[in-house]
Amino acid sequence: MKNNAYKLGLVSISFRDKTPLELIKAVRDAGLECIEWGSDVHAPFKDIQRLNDIARLQAEYGITCSSYGTYFHLGETPLEELQDYIAAAKILGTNVLRLWCGKKSADNYSAEERARFIALCKQAAHIAEQAGAVLCMECHRKTYTQKLSDALYLMNEVNSPSFRMYWQPFQWQSIEQNLDYAENIAVYTEHIHVFQWKDTARFSLYEGVEEWRAYLEKFTTPRTLLLEFMPDDSIASLEREANALKTIIGGLQ
């Protein structure tokens, strides 16, 4: 595995109080190359001027957009808005969109609700296929993909190259459980959100170097790795955490 094949970046929602220009400069100075822009504050999908301004700043500073981190909730947000989110992503320079896979775990769906939800996911995947986009489900609690078995079932049922996953460790699960999820969802995974948390406590990535190497070794090809939140919420810590991430991938075989 070539370590220089990884793309390293930042999730913009880590610093909602910073401007796009401040974020782009911080990412550049930390030696990162891409940003996942959040649709809630930094890059609203209806604000075309803001999206074009971000695209211009990216080109000026040599930063790319890895993905569009939307707050589109499948089953909640009207499906007809998906085209507008995809159009916004393309202005930013990406065809990858992060979506939220519902607002509750699959255990809380009735059989009828589950069937309707999967049909909706298939519709969304078809829209993405037609538009040349890739929809990635957040690997997150209180969503349909909270559990590995449900995420795999959904990926198999939708069965589309335009319907994929993100991966991130669940901070309230064991390392062994997270390794199992990573290994089994790897084939469907587009990007990875990177942080070092245990329950509600946050730590520097330097405290999880070996743990993260074990996670990344479950993915047979390099993925885009996106730092999400700092242990102290300070943008001044971004360079340190970026260096920790470089240390992690530098030790992979």
Your description of this structure?
This protein has 253 residues and is α/β, with parallel strands linked by helices. 39% of the residues lie in helices and 20% in strands. The protein contains 8 helices and 10 strands. It has helices spanning 20-29, 48-61, 82-92, 111-131, 148-158, 175-185, 209-216, 238-250, and strands spanning 7-11, 34-38, 64-73, 96-100, 134-137, 163-167, 189-194, 196-198, 201-203, 224-227. The chain has an 8-stranded parallel barrel with strand order 1-2-3-4-5-6-7-10, surrounded by 6 helices. Helix 7 (209-216) crosses helix 8. The longest helix is centred in the middle third of the chain and has 21 residues, at 111-131. The N and C termini lie close together (7 Å). The model has no long low-confidence stretch (mean pLDDT 96).
Give a topology summary:
Blueprint: E1 7-11, H1 20-29, E2 34-38, H2 48-61, E3 64-73, H3 82-92, E4 96-100, H4 111-131, E5 134-137, H5 148-158, E6 163-167, H6 175-185, E7 189-194, E8 196-198, E9 201-203, H7 209-216, E10 224-227, H8 238-250
Parallel strand pairs: 1-2, 1-10, 2-3, 3-4, 4-5, 5-6, 6-7, 7-10
Antiparallel strand pairs: 8-9
Helix pairs in contact: 1-2, 6-7, 7-8
